[in-house]
Amino acid sequence: MAKQKKPVTTEKEVRTAPPAAVQAQGGLFIDRVSNAKIMVFILLATALCLVPVLQNEFLSFDDPSYVTDNPLIQHLGLSSIKQFFTRQFVSTYQPLVMLSYAIEFKLFGMNGPGFHFFSLLVHLANVALVYLLAERLLKDRIAAVVTALLFGIHPLHVESVAWVASQKDVLYACFFLASSLCYLRFVSDNNKKYYLLAMVLFVLSLLSKAQAVVLPVVFLLFDYLQGRKIDGKAIIEKVPFFALSLIFGIVAFAMQTKTGAVQDFSYFPFYERVMFACYGFVCYLLQTLVPIKLSIFYPYPETLDKINSVFVYVAPVVVAALAVVVVKFRKSRIVVFAALFFCITIALVIQLIPVGTAVRADRYSYVSLIGIFLLAGYGFARLYERRPAQQKTFTAVAGLYFIIIGGLTFSRAAVFKDSMSVYNNALENYPSFMIYNNRGVIFFNNKQYKEALADFQEVEKIKPAFPNIWYNSGYAYQQLGNMPKALADYAEALKKDPKNLDIYTKIQTIHTGQNNLPAALDDANKIIELKPDVAEAYYTRAELLGRMGKAKEAMADLDRVIAMKPDFVEVYNDRGIANSMAGNYEQALKDFDKMIQLRPNDWNAHFNRSLTLKALGRYGDAYNDALLAKNNGRQVPDQYLEELRKGAGR
Predict the structure, then answer these.
(1) Which CA distances in Å does 189 have to 194, 239, 611?
(2) Residue 302 phi, psi dihedral angles, 5° rounding
């Protein structure tokens, strides 16, 4: 009998087939559990770790721009939907996110927990999609479970779920992952229906966040991992995807540049931008392994525009060493895939192109970490399946690890309960000018002016060029009654923003309160010079001129105010008084008549008209006005009323 030829075992079969020892024991327990039960377990674990988000409110950091101060989301209709798709919000083009906010407002009103509930639901959907993606790519349930659990409960993902302004990350990821699964189905079944569906989902992802532009490159990585030949055909089928990426990428960059979100490229020299990019890259990896000291804001490691951390200089060396490791393991497709997936999906947000004032952000890694988690899942599954005698130990260690990071996630989710909690946490870990300023504003709004001033002064130390900080501290000093310091800080603010009308207005208020009328008049003149079409500015100057005895100039300003704004009520009272003092009683009477016409219940105006009517000898009418004013709470001397009564012959 001829000897049978031993069948050839493919690389994929070597990777996915369980060891003989495992087969002899009847297979792994997980292989006897349905996908539905596995999914339910993962989703419940994720929901349990993130349940604190359901008690969280909105934050003062970006949430107002997106939601709480955005009237468009409160009126869901064709007009608002059109604006969602034709304009930018907070320097970005994300119409689906804005539409999502509008729908949530329709469902929950301006209720923070309602918005967080939606974010949690989308995150849970993403966890399910990651499980399906990992199972399809790795052909291993254990690897898929580990990958999905890491994605679901890792502390770095809390920010995307617990911060309403970061909802764009969970939304774009949902369509990103769904498109990926459709693409893989197209590759396996050669069914164009899935190709078209992948494209539609890709567009939806792009309409949620521009970071999705890297998806066509990720498709090439899927081809590589599955051993598919990357030839002309594979490239051509992705051309429409790349075209969409190019269009949306140009739109996103143009919007961020136009609104000033992209920093001047000369602000940081190129070599510094490379170092900061490496620094952020390494920090993402370190906090993936050890997820502690997380923050809503990670400032650039610099003070007064100078690098303040030696780790910035070390980071490029670490990145180079990691690249050497990947090259050494280049024969392992999963290692190369994981490394490239992470690098490609994080590349746009590691600040080689400087956008914003943070060097990195937890939310930026929401999709990128899938590559690392796939590698971790694959490695654990191989170790678990090849050492059956130690499986209980591996299970215990893995369980302990997931309990630890689940606890960290639960704690991190609770940090986002309100703005003050988030800012206090951020300042404990990374004192930064941005967060000191934001917390200072909260203190100020709560009338805690001393605490606000302390925070503003910290900003001045770290970033004296930070916009509005001198104005903020000046305003705090003003509220505390320290006018010399307020004026000094306002003067500093004017050096950086010499055309800021609000600063001149605050200075004018101080000068007026100090009875320094010449200085206040200079302030008023400057305001009118900068903004000559504001009626209120002329009205204020008229009041100052009146107090300085310059009645003619004051009257000219009051006439100008009425010409500019005929319904400006108060000006009629002031001009009436001025005319009355000048003996122009008939004109004064017209002014008081007009004021009372515009504001019938202004009893001061009735009393002032009474005085003018008396001067005109119309005692009866004067008595009626004075009595009406007195009966409605205006103090009117009885002697004056008696004088009018006698004059009227009553």
Answers:
(1) 9, 20, 94
(2) -150, 150
Residue 88, amino acid: Q
Q: Is 146 helix (H, G, I), strand (E, B) or coil?
A: helix
Contacts of 419 (CB under 8 A, 6+ apart): 59, 60, 61, 438, 439, 442
Contacts of 501 (CB under 8 A, 6+ apart): 527, 530, 531
Distances (CA, A) of 180 to 185, 197, 242, 504: 9, 10, 15, 56
Nearest to 207, CA basis, from 99, 104, 368: 99
Distance CA 626, CA 471 (A): 46
Query: What is the CA angle 161-167-172, rounded to 5?
Result: 110
Residue type, 75: H
506 vs 508: CA distance, rounded Å: 5
What proportions of the chain, in percent to the nearest 5, are helix, strand and coil? 75, 0, 25
User: What does each C-alpha distance from 620 to 451, 591, 604, 627 come to in angstroms?
Assistant: 58, 20, 18, 11
pLDDT per position as a tens digit, 46-66: 999 999 999 999 999 999 999
Q: What is the DSSP letter of 10?
A: P
Are the CB atoms for 609 and 640 separated by under 8 Å? no
Q: 239, 38, 4: which is closest to 130 by C-alpha?
A: 38
Contact 137/63 with Cβ under 8 angstroms? no
Alpha carbon distance 160, 137 (integer Å)? 25
- The pLDDT tens digits for 469-497 are 999 999 999 999 999 999 999 999 999 88
pTM of the entire predicted model? 0.83
Contact 349, 323 (CB under 8 A): no
Under a CB-based contact definition with an 8 Å cutoff, are residues 613 and 594 in contact?
no
Average predicted confidence (pLDDT) for the chain = 89
Which amino acid is present at 592?
A: F
Q: What is the DSSP string of 297-315?
A: -EE-SEETTEE--THHHHH
CA-angle at 633, arms to 632 and 639, nearest 5°: 100
* Residue type (1 letter), 69: D
Q: At 377, list the tokens.
A: 């899942």
- CA 29, 33, 38: angle at the middle one, nearest 5? 110
Q: Which residues pair with 355 in a beta bridge?
A: 262
Q: How far is CA 460 from CA 440, 472, 487, in A?
A: 12, 10, 16
Are 571 and 559 within 8 A, CB to CB? no
The DSSP 8-state label assigned to residue 9 in this structure reads P
Q: What are phi and psi of 89, to 5 degrees?
A: -130, 125
Count of CA atoms in the C-beta half-sphere (13 A) of 297: 24
Q: In angstroms, what is the C-alpha Rg of the chain?
A: 34
What is the signed CA dihedral for 185, 191, 192, 193, rounded to 10 degrees? -70
Which residue's structure tokens are 């603010």?
Answer: 493
